[in-house]
Amino acid sequence: MDWIELSVKTNSQGADIVSEAMMRAGAKGTQIIDRADVPDPGKPSGYWELIDQKLIDDMPVDVIVKAWFQDEAKIARLRENLLQLPVLAGFDLGKMEIFTSEVLEKDWAEYWKRFYKPFRITTRLVVCPSWESYQAQKDDIVISLDPGLAFGTGTHETTALCAELIQKYFQGGKVLDIGTGSGILAIAAAKLGAKDVLAIDIDPLAVRTAQENVLINGLDAQVKVELGDLLQGLSETYDFAIANILADVIMMLSEPLKSQLKDDAIFICSGIIKDRQEDVRHALEKCGYDILETLCRGEWIAFAVKFCSGR
Questions:
Q1: Pairing assessment for the beta strands 97-103 and 3-10 based on DSSP bridges
Q2: Which fold has domain 3-114?
Q3: How do residues 205-250 score in pLDDT, each as one tens digit?
Q4: Residue 86 in 3-state DSSP?
Q5: What is the DSSP code string of 13-59?
Q6: CATH homologous superfamily of domain 155-307?
Q7: What pTM was computed for the model?
Q8: What is the mean pLDDT of residues 257-280?
Q9: So where are the chain's domains?
Q10: Phi and psi of 146, rounded to 5°?
């Protein structure tokens, strides 16, 4: 299956905002190419493997956000929205030049691998591409990952925020991961001790990729991946839930999710751009959740909340 690739020239400040707009428009996934995201090879942090300077030199000077569509009508509508973004954001988003091209799945799948190296997502969790090697440090928990075309590499701020909160708040029990993508957060929960994880996604390609990643990590006895539309068809209850989706979806899920949660269950949610922080907070509190913690990274917000059935 081939794709229409939409590329936007922006800057580091605008990359996540452009990516969010693309996902809202129906993109199957996005990729941010930003030199600022790649550590200086001359100053290794211990979080990444050393990276060849030529790899960085080959990256574009501008920050490029790419998205993949199969519907040209969606791209036409998105073009108009993208041109309005600098005004809505209220700050400079760079050139905001827009380009389109056709791309084969196999070509895209090989291209981005050049820029995807092992990295530390939390103090304990390290994500390592399945085709790379990594020398684990003491107490490291390594997640082997091949995002495939589910576009979930784990490098995005929202994924890191969720992983940090999972590491902090998961204390056992059954886990539900809504919109699992590449499966990275479901796998993180299992690596942190979860024995029973259900990961669901509406995209068959994401489900297949997540299933493959579960097998790569030897977690098929702990993590089950299923095709599903949010909470539809779920009958069991869970001690811990994760949703790294979008602000509007989290707000929509807040009430119906309660029927899937056990008393005192923890819900970790992200994919929330800063401008929607208070909207999501209000929706969660209105539904009776207690806000345990709010984390911010870049332009993104994540919440850790507790569900109390008596409220």
A1: antiparallel
A2: Alpha-Beta Plaits (3.30.70)
A3: 788 889 999 999 999 999 999 999 889 889 899 999 999 988 889 9
A4: helix
A5: HHHHHHHHHHHHTT-S-EEEE-GGGSPPTTS--SSS----HHHHHTS
A6: Vaccinia Virus protein VP39 (3.40.50.150)
A7: 0.69
A8: 93
A9: 3-114, 155-307
A10: -125, 100
